[in-house]
Amino acid sequence: MNRRRTYTTLFRSLKERGLETVWLCVSDAHYGLRTAVKKSFLGCSWQRCKVHFMRNILAHVSRKAKASFAQKLKSIWTQPTREAALMMARVFIEEYGTRFPKGIEVLQDGLEDSLQYYVFDRFDFRKISSTNLLERLHEEIRRCTRV
């Protein structure tokens, strides 16, 4: 049987194997993945991976300014509260809005999606605000199983 591989199929398979409740799904902004999460896990929040998001924003910043821009950009996601993060984002947008309008437009369009982890205050935000931990685990598995 040639079964089409989709995210919905993957999620259905996970449910068949015992997955019951999903509170938060963290990923890049892949449209098909976001749609499948919404369809498969009712009530689940979707978090845009801050690392992938930052890469999307930095693609519109000159090489010369990238280091300082990235350092200040990161500070948005290290704030203690969602309100503080939004305030930091407003200050950041004001500072860089005219210099890098495309990058700031990307930031404004995806900011809300990248701040979902603040709802889950009992978890370590560094672990749930990006997919880095999972990607590192996958890389380690590939390294160990490579013959």
What does this structure look like?
With 147 residues, the protein is mostly helical. The protein has one domain (7-145). Helix content is 57%, strand content 5%. It has eight helices and two strands; from the N terminus they run αβαβαααααα. It has helices at 7-16, 31-40, 50-58, 63-74, 82-96, 101-110, 125-128, 132-145, and strands spanning 24-27, 45-48. The protein has a two-stranded parallel ribbon. Helix 1 (7-16) runs parallel beside helix 2. The radius of gyration is 18 Å and the shape is globular. It starts with 6 loop residues before the first helix and ends with a helix.
User: How big a fraction of the residues is strand?
Assistant: 5-15%
Alpha carbon gyration radius = 18 Å
Order of helices and strands: HEHEHHHHHH
Chain-averaged pLDDT: 88
| Largest sheet report | 2 strands, parallel
Note the total helix count. 8
Structural category:
mainly alpha
Total beta strand runs: 2
Low-confidence spans: none
Termini, distance in Å? 30 Å
Q: Based on CA inertia axes, which overall geometry fits?
A: globular
User: How many domains, as an integer?
Assistant: 1
Strand order of the largest sheet: 1-2
| Share of helical residues | 55-70%
